[in-house]
Amino acid sequence: MPHVGLRTVKTGAAVALALLFATLRGSPAPIFAAIGAIVAMNRTLGDAFQSCVTQFFGIIAGAGFGLLFVTLFGNFRYIGIGLGIIGLILVCIQFRLHFAVPLACIVFVSICLSPPDEAFIYSVNRLLDTSIGLVTALAINVAIKPYNNRAQISKLLTHLLQTIPHYIGERVLHGHYPDLSPLHAQLDRISEELEIFEKQNWPRHSDHDQQTVYLRGCEQLAQTMVHELGALCAMDERGRLSRANAERLGVLGLRVPETMPGDAHTEADVVGNYHLANLLDAYLYLSDFNLME
Prior knowledge:
The chain is 74% helix and 0% strand. The chain has helices at 6-24, 31-40, 45-73, 79-94, 101-113, 119-143, 150-173, 181-199, 206-233, 243-251, 267-291. Helix 9 packs antiparallel against helix 11. It is elongated. The model has no long low-confidence stretch (mean pLDDT 89).
């Protein structure tokens, strides 16, 4: 049986309610209420709000310009509509409404192709019905468990922490050059989830801003670990492991041969232990931070 997610259920509820509200007001085309509800039902509240803004200003721009065009040119169409589209796009660009251009053009053409005496009524109904759908979807998105990927980000950070000791052992203890591409892929995934998390902050909340800063700090520590590991892998010689770093590796569960640690004598010894110490510091800080809620 296929999994039915909460967003799917919320979309169905938003469409049903939007159609009901549009019908109750006597809308001649409730389909636009349903379209508005579908468009506004995004994963995050920030995306949902942006969709609402795009729809609203797109309709306002297209309807306003369309009514002006019909008033001035009446039944003059085809080439005239094409010229009108050019003018509408230029107006949108002038007022920095680039995001609303596609919908504004669609509404403009719809108005121009409708009977001149019905253009105004069509514009009003289109705006009212779409607004009903947008408001309904936005309200449901806010009221019914808004999407929150905070736990997913923590899970990804934990998985990265669990993976790092293996890479350290491969490079530092065994002298191998492990493939770091899976770690970079994990960092990309963390960054993507953080971008989604940032968009969830609508309306603005200071607590969410603080969590975002905190999680971005965790991301920087994760990047530092991978960066320092990359520096170790870029060295031709791994250098001799210091006694202090050897003890720290033991805390991670890595078994260090007794004959391996010693005093630093070469540049490779110093540089290698420097990068390893930075890596272990970042690992320790991230381990502590990721346990904080």
